[in-house]
Amino acid sequence: MINEKTNNIVLSFDLDNTLINNRSGIVASFNYALNKYELPNLESHVIEVMIGIPLNEMFIKVTNQDPLKLTSAFREYYGKKGIYQANILPGIKSKLKELKELHFTMGIITSKKQEMAKRIIEVLNVQNYFDYVLGETEDRKELGKLDPTLKKILNSKYPGYKIIVIGDHPKDVMLSNNLNCPFIGVLTGHHSANQLNEIKEGKALIIDSVSELDIDLIYSLI
């Protein structure tokens, strides 16, 4: 029998390096944008370590060129080719199925454009596991995951629910701080347990992968 508590818990996932591996698509798109404006390519690891922050911030870190035109060029390539280079991380699809069958509410909060994130989960055929996808929109693109409207949206959609943020990046930790909710860190990205723990306010757990999630671990944070 399913514990009724699962009906009042929202599991809010990051996308890149938490649920999917899209490093090759992001690297190719990033270097396409640089090449378009006659800037030198970057090594894969330089780009990969930045995954998880908004695109404009990524470009600002590496060049003085206008980040808006570089971001536009990135998306030009990514929407045609890069999106199809994404893969679900090992064990994730079966875990999402398991959590859905336990009646958890599940969603995604990402630094990607919202419509692009929706396209990715459709390409990967996991869209039916998620109750919402929140990403960059015209109204929500300067602060990314730290935009205060995200808290308002979740509180409005799920009043009285207990939210847990799950991700690999410090921005995910900061999101959980802003939402005043527990955090589950995964080590499938480029950040260590110490890097995630040191900025967390409140309850947190670190696991190797989303595939390790189980009902007891989730309840331990509620």
Could you walk me through the main structural features you see in this protein, from its secondary elements to its overall organization?
- With 222 residues, the chain is of the alpha/beta class.
- The protein folds into two domains: 4-19 and 88-219, Rossmann fold (3-Layer(aba) Sandwich), CATH 3.40.50; 23-85, Orthogonal Bundle (DNA polymerase, domain 1).
- The protein has ten helices and eight strands.
- It has helices spanning 23-36, 44-48, 55-62, 67-80, 92-101, 114-123, 149-157, 170-179, 193-197, 215-219, and strands spanning 9-13, 20-21, 87-88, 105-113, 132-136, 162-167, 183-186, 204-207.
- The protein has a six-stranded parallel beta sheet with strand order 5-4-1-6-7-8.
- Helix 1 (23-36) packs across helix 4 and helix 3 (55-62) packs across helix 4.
- The longest helix has 14 residues, at 23-36.
- It is globular.
- It starts with 8 loop residues before the first strand and ends with a helix.
- The mean pLDDT is 93.
